Amino acid sequence: RSLAMSALHDVGSHPSLSTHAPCTGDLQGALVIAFFLLTLRIMMTTALSRLFGLYIQRRGPQPGLKANAAEEAALRCWYMIVHVVMSAAGLLLCMPRDWLTGSGGEIFYRLPWPHGPADDAVLSFYLLQAAINLESCVYLGLNFLRAGVRGQLMMVLHHMITVSLIVLSWTTGVYEVGAVMMLLHDASDIGIDMLKLFGALAWDAALVPAFILTLLLWSSLRLVYFPVHIIWPGWVKLYRGCHPALLELAPYPQTLETCIVLTEFPTSTSMLLLLHLLLALHLAWTVQLVNKGWQKLRGGEKSSMAQFPDACAPGLVSLPDADKLNKTKRQ
């Protein structure tokens, strides 16, 4: 924070982006919180899986019920709690600052960078999100050891892009981009967690309304609000900064005709490209979501939990259906 404060004294010229890099204390704090979250997740999912196991045992055999249904349902509950809590925290952070409704170009891409020192609420939000992503990386690594990379490449790519954007927005002092992006991801993942929970417990009657709600939430946040509020203003700002007739370089009156020489130009372009890669993954997952939902509505093959898109937390490796497993044992 002291580094961020000292950076403000040089904001009149070309601000140094390195002055806002997370310090060693931030990384240590994130690691401690990540270890705490990992321990808490193991404890909660273990307890919840026992409860779901008792529920499944009393309910009796159900078509399409997986052998690991209790563990999968417990994991979905954990991540649903995480996404609900972080969505509420993101709303409390972004709404008073007008980051969700104000002009995207002036909020996210105004010059110069950094925008100023972050207050305690912003830094705490980033620190907690960093810890959650570190914990998810550990879980993703365990999945690799257990099942390999096959079927999880999109998940790995999405995770790498998200972490890169968090680091970029944190190190450059453009906290608004990372905060709003993380809020959108957490809020839209609640529906995915709900779908996977209902699918794990074979609650077919609840899948249709949950699918419709999830599709609306996912599409509105990731396919409409995300590109319109975050991506498009970035291109508009970049165009106005590079076009001589629309030059907007008030913080840098000594700059030449284009913004290519600006300190912010390489980083802002990199952030926009990463945001477009995220949007491409969102589109691909939307197609998967619609296809699986359409199959379900037509009464086709039941969709496994792992087939639904999951932008933050990898699902458990699916095991054979319980009835198929019993047939194999009898043979």
TrEMBL record:
Which Gene Ontology MF annotations are present? sphingosine N-acyltransferase activity
What keywords does the record list, in alphabetical order?
Membrane, Transmembrane, Transmembrane helix
Kindly indicate whether the keyword Signal belongs to this entry: no
Superkingdom per UniProt: Eukaryota
Keyword Transmembrane, does the record have it?
yes
- Provide the topology term for how it sits in the membrane: Multi-pass membrane protein
Q: Which residues form the TLC domain?
A: 68-285
* Compartment list: Membrane
Question: Membrane-spanning residues where?
Answer: 30-52, 73-93, 160-185, 197-218
- Name the SMART domains on file: TLC (SM00724)
What InterPro entries does UniProt report for this protein, alphabetically? Answer: Lag1/Lac1-like, TLC-dom
Name-wise, this protein is TLC domain-containing protein
Organism expressing this protein natively: Chrysotila carterae (Marine alga)
